[in-house]
Structures
1.
Amino acid sequence: MKQRVYIETTVLSYLAAKPSKDAVTAGRQVLRRRWWDSERSKYEPVVSEAVEVECERRDHQAVGIRRSLLQQASLFPPDREILDLAKVLIASGAIPEKARPDAVHIAAASVARCDFLLTWNFRHIANVRIRREVETILAKHGYTKTKICTPEELI
């Protein structure tokens, strides 16, 4: 059985973006593409409706590309357990209120028992300090399976 990987919106956004002139961003785009093209098939990719909603924003050309990428992952709807866990992450102070969608991504990946939450969001998800806090909170609520990581950590 393949391990489940929750694909957070930033991964899809980098895949859909035009090649960047910034060296760091361009490097991340290459890593994302490499993971998507050669590693994704080793996993069962899943997304939540939160990802689907975020993929509909901004650049219309990128929206079309993100839609096609979404078709390559299983979609699961939000439910009360996900929304309640997201509230816990916010109420604890681990995730700020302004980053509610990020709390939903973490909660969705945890409730869906994904092995990994794949992200390039270093502000509120893959941030080492926040990750430690989030993992402690998730463990207190019985969610220990999901590991937050970047695409390069799964290559």
2.
Amino acid sequence: MPKTAIYPGTFDPITFGHIDVIKKSLKLFDKIIVGVSEESNKNYLFSTNERIDIVNKALFKDLNLSKKKITVVSFASLTTDLCKKYKSNIILRGLRAVSDFEYEFQLAGMNRKLNQKIETIFLMSDIENQIISSRFVKEIVKLKGDIKKFTTKSTIKSLKDKYV
């Protein structure tokens, strides 16, 4: 049976840090479900459908990754419920810095309390991508800065279209 992992996030927008985690996870798992959160208590720049479109373009058009190994979905449930839906007991999370760890540690613990079969695997992006955050990318593009080192060509276009 193929081993599937769930990579949940807001991806508002997707960055090279996220993509690093996805690429590394492809070496460990047969299938990756990229779960784009519909959580309503956040103030997103892009709608859920726009974020799904941006992730799809970044992964499959810009980077030509395998659609057989990656599926992009939206979800408005607990991540543990998303795991159940896709018959996975693995949640992937990216770590950039020590400051991420406390929140991610608590989140992993809560997911484990919700479902004892769930394991959270933390992957670090490459050192040059550890400083990247979606928040900073949005701020840089809003101030007309160059974000080529932080995200893909189609994502840059989506961001620039939003801020024009």
3.
Amino acid sequence: MVKRYELSAVQWRRICDILPGKAGDRGRCGEDNRLFVNGVLWVLRSGAHWHDLPERYGKWKTVHKRFTRWSKAGIWEKVFEHLIDDPDNTYVMLDSTLVRAHQQAATGKGGTKIRLWGVPEAD
């Protein structure tokens, strides 16, 4: 049984060969790419902070650092480009109710206009 937010075996087989860190790749091998990807999906789909990542996925800081490296290297774009052709791509979607705006986003474009004391207004 697949845990909530995790990839099924079929979904994992679709992307496992295009991810870096496999045996035979140059550089360091990832300890467990599937566990890492599931950890990233847990954070993104749950809307939780990285430091709330369950311990079964590893240290949150390590997962976050690896996520950032993969983002900068374009790995996630490559994964999504590979998956976009799938007619049943429900695992790629995120629920928009999880997207939250920062509390300061409510002030509108340009933020509030604050006038400094003692500075004359411009005409």
4.
Amino acid sequence: MAKRVFFSFHYQDVIDFRANVVRNHWVTKESRDIAGFFDASLWESAKKDSPLSVKRLINSGLERTSTTCVLIGTNTWARPWVRYEIVASFRRENRMLGVHINSIAGKDQRTKALGVNPFEYLGVRFFNSGLTATLYEVVGSKWIEYTEYGPSATYQTGGVGCEHCGKFYKFSDLYNIFDWGRGDGYNNFASWVENA
């Protein structure tokens, strides 16, 4: 059955058409179930209001989604709203995956070197109880608490397995990354989403 997927991406990758290839590939599929997803993403161009209204827009866009797919272009890792979308997805316990899109020819008919994995720049430390966690991001070369999601980077998790208690994880330790071109995303995206 098709999942409702929130796509997180840098708007430049929409302009260059790379993000569109992934988000719109369902059009040539027999059905949405075969494609494996319904697109619930937002356009970054709509994110020009106050930070609070942008956060509300993102949180609203994530409602009724089960999976978040981060489309990884050249500068995706550095986009503050992409980071917010990833953290918001993590907090609501969406499944997540990343897909490199620089292997897709852009409107200039060229591909690019793969972009940096944005999951490398976000992390979480679970307290010994497993009931509380603190979110982190890399700024410069240092890990600092991520406070954009709320007044505090520390929150109640609802409980995690003891194997995670007292441990720190980069999000790259938790989520798979695929390459649209090398991984035959057109034919494999549905299974990537299903197994996220």
